[in-house]
Amino acid sequence: MPPDLAEAMKAIHTSVAQAPPFHDSDDKVIALGNGVIMLDGASAFVPGPVPPGVYADALGTGLRRHLDNDPAADLTGVLADTIHDVAVHLDLRPGHSPSSTVTILRAHDGWTDILMLGDNLAVLPGLTITDPRLSRLDLEPSCLYRHRLAQGTGFDQTHRAFLHELQTQQAARRNRPGGYWIAEADPTATQHAIVHRIRADDVPRAVLATDGAYKPMRHLGITDWPTISSASAADLDGILKQCHAVGSRRGFSQLVSQIASLVFCWWTRPMNIRPGTLPRMTRRSLRAKCGARPHGGRRDRSACIARGRT
Fold first, then answer.
1. How far apart are the first and last CA of the chain?
2. Position 194 in a domain
3. Contact at 8 Å (CB) between 267 and 204?
4. Where are the residues of the annotated region Disordered (predicted)?
5. Which end of the chain is more exposed for a tag (fewer CB within 10 A), N or C?
6. Largest CA distance in the chain
7. Residue 136 lies in a domain
């Protein structure tokens, strides 16, 4: 790749949709000059020293500071240093602290680097990346509460008791061999992150999603990722809203998370896509999948927040 083209591809542009908005969410999406960070603070049904959103925000702020200072830094090392810094700052101890998934997508020197710790999702042309280690635990409380929700049972005390027990069992397996790995208070967890390096010209675009977005999307059959990867911020926001609306109409709204984030990243415009626009066929495809018109044309404030503007 010519040096001038590689240099130009370092700038990553993003369209972001979040529900609820950035400041009210445990999900955090942070744009960098040459990348994007996505975090999903784990909802806490077991009381912790600080709320998961506070932890995720501190982690994201630290990652941005490190990567702004050194855009080419080793991502695993940066994440380990940041986990240590946040643990010291918030006085956190391994096994008794909030946690967060982490996805970092970065373009540098003709390469696209991806780091994932926890069950976020990254969809690139020809490649889907996620971390299945938590779901593979297949713990009994998880099976029980999902079965109750599928039967139409609401979020009652029994449900909350199952979630409390589930998080207790997950904590016993967190950042341990045979369990799963996530950002918490132990920097060595980063040694188990999923890491990919791909030639930049093979990755013109990507979609990132937290589990609160991609799991209900899969449940509702909204999985046309090439179409979704052409969407504006307003259209991504419309997808999240339609997940809630369609779930309610079909009687399984309990399965649809109230906290979700979608990010579309692009380096070049190989399909002549302009920010804030969506091709006619894309809109038609989304309507066919979701049964309603996407929310096109309305500017999504969460996208402005993620870019550092209001």
1. 36
2. yes
3. yes
4. 290-310
5. C
6. 61
7. no
| Residue-level pLDDT at 278 | 39
* Strand pairing class (121-124; 13-19): unpaired
CB 83 within 8 A of CB 184: yes
Q: Which amino acid is at 50?
A: V
Does the pLDDT at position 180 exceed 80? yes
**CB 114 within 8 Å of CB 76:** no
Residue 73 neighbours by CB under 8 Å, 6+ apart = 66, 67
Per-residue pLDDT tens over the stretch 85-144: 999 999 999 988 899 999 999 998 899 999 999 999 999 888 899 999 988 887 776 777
- The yes-or-no verdict on residue 287 having pLDDT over 70 is no
Residue 79 within any structural domain of the chain: yes
| Tokens read off for 102 | 């982490």
List helix spans (H) across the chain: 3-8, 52-69, 75-90, 140-150, 157-173, 211-219, 225-228, 233-249, 280-290, 301-306
Residue 128, Cβ density class (10 Å: 0-12 exposed, 13-18 middle, ≥19 buried): exposed
Please give the order of strands across the beta sheet that includes 121-124.
13-19, 260-266, 205-209, 121-124, 127-130
How many structural domains does the chain have? Answer: 1
Identify whether 169 is part of a domain: no
Cα distance between residue 246 and residue 264, in whole Å: 22
pLDDT tier for residue 306 given thresholds of 50, 70 and 90: very low
Dist. CA 184–CA 100, nearest whole Å: 7
Domain boundaries, position 232: 3-131+181-306
